């Protein structure tokens, strides 16, 4: 038995009609048995008493039978034939029933291979249509000998064809409903992705953290793997992060990002998007594109292992500037569907939101750098003393660019005494920083060259703030240190500030008792009282601001207890090391911290 294939008959334009073929696809049917349509074929065979009955659907190159009874082999197993064996294509052409008592007598079909190979002699086919009336195929009754079809038989066949068409339309409607459901789900997933991405990106002002969160958010929800590229001021890639859905590919994806950063050429998609600001979508891609993009053969091998079948790249625009600061590349392997225009739209929105986050992070970084430089410029250089070891540190609050009001100071009096101070001006802005600078200068102006007790110096400071009408509320500790036989004598006065810590040479830690008095600048000047303590050699006086012990999730007493425990655990390490240890906590600081440690030699 000889088979012959046939392309679309040029005389039957309807065979290649895109809308008709789309309806055929939406039925979800193919050359496999379907119980509902097999039932129609059995009904035709029984009611019309024919040996062969078919539900035949016709594409531009073949006909296939989801419902069939009585087909000879090999066609019964294949459930399809080429158009060279098709009478039903003529039903598509005419859009009316085709009734042939003896096909061998009709020039249009007498040479059709269905006659000798399928035994088609008598044929009656009724159109099967979709909701728009397009003919998708036919419900046909076939006999291997001539037959005069009766009106009753044809009426029965037409009724069954109408019912069969209804089933086809139902399948198409179900497919459309399923497609609509998938679209709704995809839209919902994309909205959830964008919402969660916005939440992730707005949760940090650190650029590296933001880009890492972006990559983690889109993989694997939108892509098998992703790469985010940022550029420097000259437009060249300066930083790349890459993430793959398979943890086993972590080393490969990291290496891909490293090589891509250095070896992507100007013709690469990433460089093109960075240069033009226009997105690029490749629904179908192959490794030749990677070969053309770089002179590094390693990149091709990595892409093959990671999976490279479809990709898209979108710009990361700088907010309000009309420039590009980076690009986001999404890649799918061969086991995942190709990217489409909907994915491109989502990716463009991701790029826009990433641009806002990265732009804010860059601005924050610049502002923070300026603020830290300004803050440190206001902090003094500690003096050298033969009898006291001094160390100080300042740490700004996490994720904040404002200049703070925390300060410390230490200076040597003409008589050799050492005056030390620490304080905290309310607020976190440039006004607080300016007031802090005034307050520190007032301390120096009031204390330098004077032998007054520290409580008198604090009282004069209070009176000066009130008299000059400096609008501030501040805390402060002022201390005078003087060498004496057996150690260093310390007198100190506290205006609403956390109590100093005494750390003895043997590691004992205690808060210094002293009267806690009102803040500076809140009330009329009031009498101040001082306290005294002797530092033996190796003892340390630790002054600090409240940012070291205050957190929202715990009480001040818990914070003080933790501080004392950490200081005790530090042992007898140098004062500078002690300060570094106290600032190296695992949690993010919610307030600025200033530290001043003074150790008797």
Automatic annotation (TrEMBL):
<protein>
    <submittedName>
        <fullName>SpoIIE family protein phosphatase</fullName>
    </submittedName>
</protein>
<feature type="domain" description="GAF">
    <location>
        <begin position="32"/>
        <end position="178"/>
    </location>
</feature>
<dbReference type="InterPro" id="IPR001932">
    <property type="entry name" value="PPM-type_phosphatase-like_dom"/>
</dbReference>
<dbReference type="Pfam" id="PF13185">
    <property type="entry name" value="GAF_2"/>
</dbReference>
<feature type="domain" description="GAF">
    <location>
        <begin position="206"/>
        <end position="368"/>
    </location>
</feature>
<dbReference type="Pfam" id="PF01590">
    <property type="entry name" value="GAF"/>
</dbReference>
<dbReference type="InterPro" id="IPR052016">
    <property type="entry name" value="Bact_Sigma-Reg"/>
</dbReference>
<dbReference type="InterPro" id="IPR029016">
    <property type="entry name" value="GAF-like_dom_sf"/>
</dbReference>
<dbReference type="InterPro" id="IPR003018">
    <property type="entry name" value="GAF"/>
</dbReference>
<dbReference type="Pfam" id="PF07228">
    <property type="entry name" value="SpoIIE"/>
</dbReference>
<keyword id="KW-0378">Hydrolase</keyword>
<dbReference type="InterPro" id="IPR036457">
    <property type="entry name" value="PPM-type-like_dom_sf"/>
</dbReference>
<feature type="domain" description="PPM-type phosphatase">
    <location>
        <begin position="388"/>
        <end position="600"/>
    </location>
</feature>
